[in-house]
Design brief:
Layout (H helix, E strand, L loop, with lengths): L1 H10 L5 H21 L5 H4 L3 H50 L3 E5 L5 E4 L17 H7 L6 H4 L3 H14 L3 E5 L5 E8 L5 E7 L1 H24 L6 E2 L4 E2 L1
Antiparallel strand pairs: 1-2, 1-5, 3-4, 4-5, 6-7
Length: 240
Amino acid sequence: MDDTAAQQRTADGGRHPMIYACGGVAAVCAAVAGALSSSDVNLAGSFGVAPALLSILTFLQFRQLIAETERLRIRFTDAERTAKTNRMAQIQMQNLLDSISDGCVLWDSQERPTLYNPQASIVGAPAVSAGITFNEYVSTIYPRPDEQTTGGDPRLWLETRRRWFESADGFHEVLLKSGIWMLISERRTQDSGTVTIYTNITESKRVEQLRDDSERRMAHAQKLARIDIFEWDAVASEMY
């Protein structure tokens, strides 16, 4: 037996004994597989190596279970890390929205708010809340705008706002009954959402009104005094 093994090692060029051990395990596995396929063979009594082989198979299954558990742990850790990153990004975005003076509402593709700041709530109107639809929000603020904006009809007001919302282009001035002027602008996002920006332009409208009143009074005074004002273009030598 020893001479045969030595000759085999010499013939194979001195291969490592582990190779023969693996081959032996493979042979035993094949033998046990054959025994399992025979209904009239008692596995434990037919092969003395069966208990050892079953231990090896159990060990391999245990290793596979450990590997699968590790893969699940890594997957869960990655998902948890991604969720945490998303939460942090949303918090930072909310802090940014809260810090600006303009009101801002981000509507998703289903026309429901996903992000908004307190400034987006028109004075005296219900605040923007999660779950409310765009149409519902527009209907709740109907009593606040002046009739020159709404036309005095809630359906007409909703049609007007939907037209602005769907076009998502341009700027629209809205006068509230409280005297506040709001500039509404909307833009489409890459994920089919819409961003609505509310800007308080009351002060700008006040300055504009003062300028218009001043020009009107000056024109009236000139008319009463019969004074004409002309401007001379020195380059073209023309008066206009």
